[in-house]
Amino acid sequence: MKKTLQRPEGLPDSLSSPIVTPLMPAVAYASTTPDELDSQYEGRAFGYTYAREAHPNADVLARRIDALEGMSGGLVVGSGMAAVSAVLLGLCKAGDHVVGADQLYGRSLRLMAEDLPRLGIETSLADPTDADAIAAVIQPNTKLVLIEVVSNPTLRISDLEGIAKVCREKGVLLAVDNTFTTPACLQPVNFGADIVIHSLTKLLAGHSDATLGWVCATDQKLTDQMRVFAVTTGMTPSPFDCWLAERGLATFELRFARAQENAQRLADFLADQEGVRRVLYPTRSDHPEVSRAQSLLHGRGCNMVSFEIEGGRPAANAFAKAAEGIAFAPTLGDVGTTLSHAASSSHRALSPDGRAALGISEGFFRVSVGLEDPEALITCFRTALDAARTL
Ligand SMILES: Cc1ncc(COP(=O)(O)O)c(C=O)c1O
After folding, report:
1. Distance of CA 330 from the midpoint of ligand 1 (Å)
2. Where in the chain is the domain with CATH 3.90.1150.10?
């Protein structure tokens, strides 16, 4: 029987072209001959073959994030954690040692504490606000150091320049998760980072409807190594998520500017309120690393504000309940303000003493500030604070 190759019908002829990237969900791409396929696999011609390997929507998005970060050849993967895993599992082998900041995102900490040791990769955690503390745990077999510039949820500022210097001197790779700070505040490569990571799920995509990550190394060989690992382990992103994220990215700078203005106003409002024990916002004069924040973030404070109220868990319950219109949800970077409570979510696995050591009490909240009318936002927080005070 004669085999007929089914080819999809082409699009109707048009002199004009679409003004947004089309969504291209094809899983497989047909080639004409085995020779043509050879030339694709051997890199003599470019062509897609199978969506887990690569697809157009991921590539379009990757080039956009590359441009924002001042890097090239980056890789979009299925989540921020896939990006972190591509670095830690794709570049390290049994017998290596990895240093992590002690206030990394919870799942990154879990990878460091449980999965890497299970695979024979040693790990140590140290305080990234102090480059000497990081230097002190680096060993001869240390392969890389992973930090975030603004820590979650206490918003401490890492000594990025000091750590980059230590890593350079000791021949260790520096990986920076730039999710909180974004390239609008800081491009880690300009401070000596070798690898940059993003959860695109957060501020860059910005609408809480796509889960994605991006990772890129300054050394293309390392990015290629992570790409092969990601393709083999199936970390590949969905075309639809990439398409949504590209659309969200178009408004990123505007959204981030507005969210930061709102965050500054909210932080200043909270700091004046009775029943609020402390407020953390990087550009406020009472922040423990304010001068470092000013210089690293070019005077920008980002969109996260953390604060602590008096009254423990009962007050926290009353506050969250009364904060109407604000999603009490464990995410950040959405167009709407979201509220999270570390003791019952991201840091619930720690003992109360462990949380206290990080400055996280039952009254501690982290706010991801959105784009609402600032007066309406402040009214909402005032009402919630009243509810927490008058239990
Ligand atoms: C700093 C940071 N890195 C990585 C991640 C993981 O991203 P994702 O949820 O897209 O896997 C998060 C998630 O909140 C994060 O805050």
Report:
1. 10
2. 252-389
Ligand 1 pocket mutation pick from 61, 152, 198, 199 by most atoms within 8 angstroms of CB: 199
φ and ψ of 228, to 5 deg: -60, -45
In this model, does residue 7 exceed pLDDT 70?
Answer: no
Residue 59 CA to residue 219 CA, distance in Å, equals 19
pLDDT in tens, 213-252: 999 999 999 999 999 999 999 999 999 999 999 999 999 9
Is residue 2 annotated as part of the catalytic site, yes or no?
A: no
Residue nearest atom 8 of ligand 1, based on CA coordinates? 80
Global confidence as pTM = 0.95
Answer yes or no: CATH 3.90.1150.10 is held by domain 252-389.
yes
Q: Which residue has the higher pLDDT, 217 or 43?
A: 217
Fold of 55-249: Aspartate Aminotransferase; domain 2 (3.40.640)
Q: 105: CA distance to ligand 1 center in Å?
A: 7
Query: What is the side-by-side strand order in the sheet with 97-101?
Result: 75-77, 213-217, 195-199, 173-177, 142-148, 97-101, 122-126
Comma-separated ranges of CATH 3.40.640.10 domains in the chain: 55-249
Task: Say whether 105 is catalytic.
Answer: yes
pLDDT at position 2, please? 47
Position in ligand 1 atom list of the atom nearest CA 81? 11
Residue 9: its pLDDT value, please?
66
Does residue 340 line the site of ligand 1, with CB under 6 A? no
Neighbouring C-beta atoms of residue 19, cutoff 10 Å? 5
